């Protein structure tokens, strides 16, 4: 950030009074511009014994497989955002279940949320953000071609919990950037 | 937002190609400025049988009682943010426990997270954002003077779970603004 979004004048990086971090401060109008982590909201959609994955048509991780997910928008809940992303990326009809994984990803300045969901129809209508969408049995998950560690760890929890039939919420951190 | 934070020129509100929402778009440099919900991270700190509350020295809800909580910062996890806020607002030494409540508050464009924690010393050093901080037995919680519904509902869950000795994560929405 180089200019004030309120008045258009150049900003200064300094620690405001009663604060302890560098902020983008406007000396002209007095505005302090805060930056905060963003939430990514998504779904683990299950059709019979298979899991819905989408192949990304956008960066980052173009061509890799992901669970439907994207940035949470103003005015929606995490659940509403997760349903919207499933619609946008897969065109899947789902019945949303409970919140399942909550994952802190501090190096990406994000928190990820994945809901369990039941897919109601095998018909998919992937949107422009997906090359394709399809159903994978657990044996066929393309582990080496998954886009994000929040996706692979959510799938790992699901497979482990399926053995017990109990799907509690899981909260954990992914504290380091991925290996190159 | 009225000006581009990248180049300082006035912005236009329009729906970009391949999008479906009004965004702050800069026709000069092409930047699209997204806005996203923010996370509030806090703690339910327990000393023996008592709960630590802080009386707010800042708006909104000046003079009302709250659990230590504040906006999550870039580069930290929800847990790190919750510990930081407890230090800043109460100066309490704590041992952080598990994530306890996750609360969607869409009208405020926020998601709130509260962790359980054990207070390690009765000594408190409230910071400038608190008028005072103190310990309350369940019978003495000032229900009518609590600052936020995310605080009162987190306390209600805690009191109910204390009866069973099990403290699972709770996820719920507060879908409507508070009554005036
Ligand atoms: Zn300004
Ligand atoms: Zn610009």
Automatic annotation (TrEMBL), chains A, B:
Its cofactor is Mg(2+). It holds the Pfam family NUDIX. This is NUDIX hydrolase. SUPFAM superfamilies: Nudix (SSF55811). Belongs to the Nudix hydrolase family. PANTHER family: NUDIX HYDROLASE 23, NUDIX HYDROLASE 23, CHLOROPLASTIC. The keyword Translocase does not apply. PROSITE patterns: NUDIX (PS51462), NUDIX_BOX (PS00893). It comes from Pollutimonas thiosulfatoxidans. It comes from the Bacteria. Keywords: Hydrolase, Magnesium. One of its GO terms (molecular function) is hydrolase activity. Residues 36-163 form the Nudix hydrolase domain.
């Amino acid at each position: 950030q180089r200019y004030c979004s309120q008045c258009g004048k150049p900003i200064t990086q300094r620690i405001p009074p009663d604060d302890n971090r560098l902020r983008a401060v406007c000396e002209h109008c007095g505005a302090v511009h805060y930056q905060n982590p963003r939430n990514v909201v998504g779904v683990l959609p299950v059709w019979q014994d298979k899991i819905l994955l989408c192949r990304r048509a956008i960066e980052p991780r173009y061509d890799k497989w992901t669970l439907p997910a994207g940035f949470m928008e103003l005015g929606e809940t995490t659940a509403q955002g997760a349903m919207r992303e499933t619609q946008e990326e897969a065109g899947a009809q789902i019945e949303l279940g409970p919140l399942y994984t909550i994952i802190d990803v501090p190096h990406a300045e994000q928190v990820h949320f994945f809901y369990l969901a039941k897919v109601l129809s095998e018909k998919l209508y992937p949107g422009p953000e997906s090359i394709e969408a399809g159903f994978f049995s657990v044996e066929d998950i393309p582990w080496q071609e998954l886009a994000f560690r929040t996706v692979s760890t959510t799938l790992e929890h699901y497979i482990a919990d399926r053995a017990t039939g109990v799907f509690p919420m899981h909260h954990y951190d992914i504290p380091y950037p991925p290996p190159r």
